[in-house]
Amino acid sequence: MAESAPQTYADHRRYDPAFHVFTFAILALSLLVSLWQLVRNPGFTTAWIFLVFAALLVLYFKVRLYALRVQDRVIRLEERLRLQRLLAEPLTSRIGELTEDQLIGLRFASDEEVPELVRQSLDERLPREEIKKRVKVWRPDTFRV
Length: 145
What we know:
Layout: H1 17-40, H2 44-86, H3 100-106, H4 114-124, H5 128-134
Helix pairs in contact: 1-2, 2-3, 3-5
């Protein structure tokens, strides 16, 4: 579902309180409580409960990283297709020189400013955050994970 307010560099990051606060807090607290129980009552069961909560916390981070990695791959493909459509030579032949990080940063640039930002990205080896800071007309990405 599209967001109503325009997206900017300052507010483009996705924040899901149910995931980033509630789920993490419950898992982290459970891990600490299980560690406390393991110290107070050492044994197989308390050790096992601690290991299960440690595994769940690892799973929490891995699930997030896997989703972000897939998203980055889709963005890379999407931006390469977009750049082939928008760029003229000699920039079209240099699309392969853009790093994944640069392609991810360029996704927020409007079609009009993409050619100049691509040239700057290649010539100055700009990182993702610097590219995003140079975007003047923000192209929102409201479907990210």
